[in-house]
Give the backbone structure.
Amino acid sequence: MADLKYQPVTHDHNAFLEKAKKREGFKKAYEDLEEEYTLAKKMLAARARVGLSQEAVAEKMGTTKSAVSRLEAVGKHAPSLTTLKKYAHAVGCHLEIKFVPEHAQRLLANTAALSPEDLNDSTSLVEEDPETFGKSVAGLNRELGLKILGGCCGTDNRHIRSLAAQLATGMNKNEKKGAD
């Protein structure tokens, strides 16, 4: 079994998608299976990271190569949590499932007064005042649990200081609630 080493086949997925999206009905079908494609991509990446073949993963899971192949194929199989856990363990990972609020699913990190479309067409920098920026971005942390926060063009040390102060204020309020 030691001679079964994973050797990836080169594939330009972006070029494939661009070509495929030109086919009638492909884009909608692809979007309908977005979560499945994301899961398959993560599974393949995890297997590639540890350098295992489907045969090696199957052996670790106590199943067959064809079962692993079906598991990694999009839209052909709805695996159970037990099976996903076995796969994760076989590739040296643990399975983590999250429920993400619908309003956060397509979140754009934009606290400017302009819409993303208006910002895309803008030829000038739109700067938000530091206090408003700090409150808006700290709100994303409190309401949605986002852990990585920051700014973009037009954000400077004043904005980051305001964000830090807002986060500290929120933490102090949470600490006081916990002490009650």
